[in-house]
Every structure is written in structure tokens, then in C-alpha cells.
Amino acid sequence: MSLRRSLALALLGVASLGVSLGGPLTVQAAPTNPFPSASETYYKLDVPNGTMSVTVETLVQNGSGKDATAVPFSVLPTATNIVVKRDGVALPTKLTAGSEKLEQPGVVLATLATPMKNNTRASFVMAYDVPAHVGDLMRLEKGVIETSFIGQGAGSFVFVDVPSGGENYFDPGCLKQSSQPSEAKSGGFERWVCGDVAVVAVNTNNPDVLKRCAALDDKCRQRESTTGLFSAFVQSITDQSTRGKLEADVAMKDGTRKLVFGFFRRDEAWAQKQFAIAQAALPKLEAVFGFAYPNGERISMRQSHQIQLIGAAGIAFPEQGEVLLSPDTGFADDAEVTVHELAHQWAGFNLTEGWLWEGLAEYAMRTVLPGMGITPSNHAWTKLGYKDPLMTWRNGSLITNSDYWYGKAGAFWFAYQTAIGGPENMRKVLALTLPHDTRAPFDGRWFMDNGERVSGANLDRLFLEWIFNPVSATSLLVERRAIYDSLGVLNSKAVALGLNGTPSDIFDNLDVWSFAAVPDQIARGSTILESYAAVADLTAEAGLPPSRGVVASWGKRTMTETAAVIEQQRQAVRILRDAFMQFATEPPDSPVVRQLALAKEHFADGKFSESTRLASASLTGAINQDAAGKMIALAKTQQADFSPGFLDKLGMVMRDPDGDLKAAEVAYAQGDGAKALGLSQSAYAAWNDSRGRGLRFLASLAGLMCVVSVVIWIMLRRVDSGAKRAVVASRGGRTGHVIDASESKTRWKDWENIP
Question: Residues near 309 by Cβ (< 8 Å), separated by ≥ 6?
């Protein structure tokens, strides 16, 4: 038996576990474990020598209900040199060996020097070594270590020190510790932390969770409900002579992609063959699914012994664009595994359940390989006698036979392809399953809906026979079919009116199989179609072309939005009809006819607001044109009768009525009635009111002169007053004629008495 996925780390629905980091850490004992604990296990990998040293620091609580004389600890099956200490004192130990083949850890029972009271806690430190070894669960060789790790159950952190200069690969779920300890860095190591690997694997796209777990948040410790003791895996290589690497550019739909395969040199013949198969299969897989390779510029393949140890021939990590492959899987040709896992790059997290992603990977593999001259193996699932529907796979069924599930899941998609009309329609459906689509991930109901939409086929029997539980699903499918039959009547009415698709508010309910509100929505849709039919008739009667406005709205927008578009079209038809009637006798090359032709084009495009504006402007322009002709005639009469006097000439200052009248005539000839009307009114007003403006100009001028005179008088008065004050100040405050004889040398002399 060969599984295609890891039960905990790849695509087997870890997300459905509902693991949350929201609450505080609580360490609870499993029913068979009377010693719950919180622990840190430190693995130091001596990769060049193929050995490990392990230290376990554990806080244990006695939950046995009585005094404890011994405490158990878990170790790797090949542990040696085991020492357990309490308060620095070594304790007597007894080892019950584990089994790699059965994935059972060894159990070390440490005898306490003094009994441990019930509900009390105690700290212990255990150390042991793991020698070089190649077995069913671990491969520790010089230069290469591939191994799983164990903690002490719920409440565990597992820390792994790997050579910083090595080629290191951890299964998703382990993170590089954000704060690297000095003892690790100084020794040439980097430290990784593996807590609850399921939580981390589920939250690979949640930077906050990854940051917290890398910083050793206690909420990231292992939980009993999500993983067993074996909870992490590393592949670390320091001897690159053991490692091979193949690289090639593969021509794909959107350009080349870099294909890289890392493998062990002892398996080079196998690797070369799988690499060639991958190069040939990737473009073919892309063609099967109908959309471009979605996971970046690189496709990574890596040989792994670990996945074979847990019963898997291959594992795919679509979001990372990575595939793990194991040689010697027991298949007649490992090409089947390679192509299946590569198919998961398209059939991965964009799908909700195992029967979808595994079935589509099987379908794609069995579609591609015959064209490459390879015949896939036969699961013979129909001979096993099982009848469980596909949706119960890992969701209630007790059947564990992988041949049944993989065989049936792959066969279903070929039956589905036939039911919807063949490979071309199958490609149309698969092309809609883009991983980054807002509707992703896609479930079985989505495939039923879209298979029917693409083909028009009724898939009730197919899905009842293969997928759904007939007991619980039959009534729902009957309700769904009644809804779709009613919708078919509505769609027929729409098609008769040139409309296609389903209004978005109806579609949204159908998409989630919420049928209660749909009958009322369908009834409203029928009323809206009747309204549109009336508008379409009105459009034809007005001699207008069919419009794309409602056509573009019906299958993409809500019914309320479409009803608004229909009303806009109704208003546009009425205004355009009036405009065409108004200007029926206009020559074809007249401006107003050209404007109406443009309005008709916008109407046909569904631009009803612009169409209405142009038609309204045409009607308004006609009124302005008529008024402008009359005003130009009046202005010319006024021009002929104008005999300017003094006041008239003053009134013409800054006015050019002759120029305005000429410009008005030009605008009138060009059909610009609004401009012609404004200019002719300006010219007429200039001549007609010239005397009044002249009088107003003189009055304004006289007023201005008065103001200027008053201002000058005030200014002179202020200057004179200032001069007098200055004289008085210089005479000490005295006024009149003053003779200053304050100095002895100063004498008053009359001009007549000058000697």
C-alpha cells in the first residue's frame, strides 16, 4: 500500500482540525497518561559522523491519584547511554525498547529516590545518544541524517540544532528559532523549533502565527489532539558527495520554469528517469488543467526516505511548489507517483477535500501517462466490494484501503468528464479552479454546478451514485433541481430577449446552495424581463438600434442594478425619439444631425447618460438657434439706427458690438445657437443702452473726482496741522512773533539799524 500524502503535514485536511492559538496553554493528561508534562527536547545533530545527542528538560506533574515511585519518559527507539536526573542526582532507569517498524518510541522508567506526592510537580533532565543507524524510521549515516523526532507529548517543544553550513530540510511545521542561542551559533549550528507542527503547517500564510511560534510562544507547544509523539522530520546533509542535483528549464504556458531535483547519488538511475518523466509531464499537466503553473518560477523535487517510512510514496506541497519522492515504492513504474505528485501543483489547496485533490491528481496522471507510453497500474477498486461514497473518505468512513479510495476517486473524474461532454468541457471546468480565485477553495457542489453550467447536463444521478450520501442528499438535490428548473424558464425568457447568464444576487445564493430566497428572486427576475421586453419594443418603435446596456448588466449585476439600467434606457429612448422627430427635416450634414448620430452610438453602447445628454443638448440647441437668429436681426436693426452722441460714445468705452455681432453670425452659421445668442444679445445691449451707460459713466467719474478732492483736502489739512505743531514745539509752546535773546551773543537788529 502506498499513500500519496502525509497525514499530518501535507494535504490531508489539517485545516479541518480547528486548531487555534487563541487560548492559554493547558497541559492535560491523556486518559492513559497519569504524568502530564511541559518539556523541551534538544537534538544536536553531528551530521559528519551520523550521530545525535539528545537532552530532555521536563516538568512533570503526578496526576495518578497516588504517590508515584517512578516516572516514564519517551526516547527514540535506538537510544543509548540514557541518564535521567532529578535535582542533579542520577536515578535508576529501566528501558523498554521501542520499535521503528511499528513507530513506537522506547520508554524509560526512572525510579525516584523519594516518592512524588499526588498533584505535585518535579523537574527532570534526561540525556541520551543516538548512534549511526539505518532503520525503518531513522537513517543516520556519515554526512547524512534523515530522521523523525519525538517530544514528550502534549506540552512539548522540540529543538533541533543542525549544521549551519549543511543542506537542511525540515517538513512544514518546524521554524527557524527567531532568537538564535549563542551556544548554537558558536558551535556552527542553527536552531529550529518544532512545537505543534499541525498548527504551523495550517498557518503557513499567517505571518503573525509563524512569528509567535518562532519566538517560542507557549501556545505553539505540541497538543495531544493534533499529533503523536513523532512530530517532526529533518534531512541534513554535510557530505555533498552523497547528493546529486538535476536542473532544467521546462517550457510552460507562461514561459519557462526551473525544474530542480535533489537526490542521493546511490539512486541516480532512478532520479534521472523521474526527472525526464517530470520534464515531459509538466506541460501536459498544464494542458489538462487549463491554467498556467501557479506556484512561481521554480518546481522543486526532492528525494526523501522519511515519507516511505510513514507509508507514502510521494508528498506534494503545492504552495511551496515542492514534491517529495521516495524510490522503491513497489509500483511497476515510479512514473505514476511522480506525475501524480506533480499534478497536485494544480490540484491542491484550491480544493476543499481529499477526494477532490487526490481524485483529480489521479485523473490527470491517468490522462497524461498513456500519451508518454506508460500504462498506469490498476487499483481494481470495483472488486473490493465497498460502496462508501467519496465524500465520506476521511470524513466518517471506516474503510482504509487506499486502492479503493484512490481508484474510485480517479474513476469518478472520468465519469464526470463523460457526463459533461468530454475532455474539452472538462478542461473548461478545471480552468476555473485557479488557486487565487476569490471563490477558492472549490468543493464538490461547485463542480456539480459548473459541470452543469458548462454542459447543460443533469448531474444529480452521477453525484448521488459517486459522491453524496443518498440518504441525506436526495431531498436537497430534489429541492435544487426544482430551483434550477424554474431558473431554466427564466433563462429561456432572457435568451429570447438576447440576454445570457444569471443575475449575481440569484447566482450568489445558488453558489452556496441556499435555495430559500431563490423562488422570489426568480419571480422578480421575470417581472424585470417583462419590463425590458417593453423597453426593447419601445426602442424598435423609435427606430433606435438594440442597446448593449442591459445585455452587459443582466448576467453580471444584481437585479436591482439591471432594473435601473432598464429605466435609464427607457428615458433615453423617449428623449432620442423626441429629438429625431424635432429634427426630421434637418439636412444630413447639419451639426444637430451629427450630434444625434453620436447620441445614437452611445445608446447602442449602453451609455445612456451620455446619449441622453447629447439628445437634450440638441433640443436645447434648436431653441437657442432660433432665438439667436431673431436676436441677430434685432441687433442689426439697432446697429443701423445707431447715431452716437457724446454720451453714446462714452457708453461704448470697452465695448465692441460690431465684433460681437460678427462673431454671433459666425457661430450661428456653425450651428452654435447658445454662443450666437449670447454674442448677439451683448451687441444689441451695447447699442441699445449706450446713452444710459454714458450717463452712468459721467456720474461715476464725477463721484470719483469728488472722492479724490476730499481725500486731497484731508491729506493737506493733516500736513498743515503737522507743520504748525512742529513750529509751536520749536518755540517752547509760544505763539505769535517771538524774539529769542536767551544767548548773550544774540541781539535783535532792525534791518534799518544795521551798521
Answer: 100, 136, 137, 148
